[in-house]
C-alpha cells in the first residue's frame, strides 16, 4: 500500500538525519582514556562496536599501565615477597607525564573533523588536564563515571567526600600509598574474599568467567600522582568544551551520589557549558559488561 502523502516529508527528514549522523561519524574519532589499573585493552570490545557503527577510535595507554606496566618484583613469585612494602617503579610518574600522552594522541588525530575525548574513572584527571592545555584539540569531552576536577582539583578530594561513603573497594588497597608511591591492589590475590570484593567493586555485572580473565590483565599499581595531583581547570579553556557525563547507575566504585556531586560542582564553577547527562545501567565497567550499549551511547 502506498503510504499517505503527509508521511513522506517525515520519512525523508528521518532518512536525512540518519544520513547526517552516518556522515558525521565518518569524520569523528573517539580518543579513549582508561582508568586505574587498566589499560588501552579495556576498550577493545567497545572499539569493535564503534567500528561496526562507523566510528573510528584510538585507545591510550597512560604511563605505568597496559601490558608493558612494570610490576613489583615479587608480584608473580610464591608468597608475593615485598608486595606490601616495595616502592613502586611508577612512583615518579607525574600527572604532566600522563596528560602529555593524551595530548600527543589528540594532536595525531586532529585531522578528523570531530574529536571526542572519553575518560573513564581516574583517567578523568589526565584527560581534563590535556583538554585544559589544548581545548582546540577537543570537540567534546565525555566522562564515563570519571573524575571531574571542575569543582575540586584532586580525585582524592572526591574519594574522601561523605557522598562517597557507600563506595566499595577500600579494603583492596595494599600498604601505604605514600611509601609505595602508588595505590596498589592485588588482582592475582589467592584470597577468595579479596577477589570477590574486587569483583563486587568493579565488575559485579560481568560474567564470572570473563571477570577472571579481566582481573588477570589488571596491573597492580596506580601512580600516586593520578589521584593526588591537583588538576586546575579554567572556564576560558576546559570550561568552553561541550561535555557529557555518562552515569553508571549501579556503580559500586563511584556511587551515583559522588558522580552527581562532581557534575553539580563542575556546572556551578563553569556554567557556560553545563554537562549533558545520560545514565547507563550497571557497574563501574560497562566496557566489560555491555560494550555494544556503551558504543551506541557514545555515538548518540
UniProtKB/TrEMBL annotation:
InterPro entries: AB_hydrolase_1, AB_hydrolase_fold, MES/HNL. One of its GO terms (molecular function) is hydrolase activity. Signal peptide: none annotated. It comes from Streptomyces olivaceiscleroticus. It comes from the Bacteria. This is Alpha/beta fold hydrolase. Keywords: Hydrolase. Residues 30-296 form the AB hydrolase-1 domain. It holds the Pfam family Abhydrolase_6.
Amino acid at each position: 500500500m502506498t503510504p499517505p502523502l503527509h508521511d513522506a516529508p517525515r520519512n525523508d527528514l528521518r532518512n536525512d538525519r540518519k544520513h547526517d549522523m552516518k556522515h558525521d561519524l565518518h569524520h569523528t574519532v573517539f580518543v579513549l582514556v582508561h582508568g586505574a589499573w587498566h589499560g588501552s585493552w579495556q576498550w577493545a570490545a567497545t572499539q569493535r562496536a564503534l567500528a561496526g557503527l562507523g566510528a573510528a577510535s584510538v585507545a591510550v595507554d597512560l604511563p605505568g599501565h597496559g601490558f608493558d606496566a612494570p610490576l613489583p618484583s615479587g608480584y608473580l613469585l610464591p608468597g608475593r615477597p615485598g608486595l606490601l612494602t616495595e616502592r613502586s617503579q611508577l612512583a615518579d610518574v607525574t600527572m604532566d607525564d600522563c596528560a602529555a600522552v593524551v595530548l600527543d594522541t589528540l594532536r595525531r588525530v586532529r585531522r578528523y573533523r570531530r574529536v571526542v575525548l572519553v575518560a573513564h574513572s581516574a583517567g578523568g584527571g589526565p584527560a581534563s588536564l590535556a583538554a585544559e592545555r589544548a581545548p582546540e584539540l577537543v570537540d567534546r569531552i565525555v566522562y564515563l563515571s570519571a573524575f571531574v576536577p571542575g569543582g575540586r582539583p584532586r580525585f582524592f578530594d572526591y574519594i574522601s567526600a561523605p557522598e562517597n561513603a557507600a563506595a566499595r573497594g577500600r579494603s583492596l588497597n595494599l600498604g601505604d600509598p605514600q611509601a609505595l608511591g602508588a595505590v596498589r591492589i592485588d588482582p592475582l590475590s589467592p584470597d577468595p574474599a579479596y577477589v570477590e570484593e574486587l569483583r563486587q567493586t568493579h565488575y559485579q555485572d560481568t560474567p564470572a568467567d570473563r571477570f577472571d580473565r579481566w582481573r588477570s590483565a589488571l596491573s597492580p599499581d596506580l601512580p600516586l600522582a593520578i589521584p593526588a595531583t591537583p588538576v586546575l581547570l579554567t572556564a576560558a579553556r576546559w570550561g568552553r568544551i561541550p561535555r557529557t557525563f555518562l552515569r553508571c547507575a549501579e556503580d559500586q566504585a563511584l556511587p551515583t551520589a559522588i558522580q552527581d556531586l562532581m557534575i553539580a560542582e563542575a556546572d556551578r564553577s563553569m556554567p557556560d557549558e553545563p554537562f549533558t547527562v545520560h545514565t547507563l545501567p550497571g557497574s563501574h565497567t560497562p566496557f566489560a559488561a555491555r560494550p555494544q550499549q556503551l558504543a551506541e551511547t557514545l555515538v548518540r
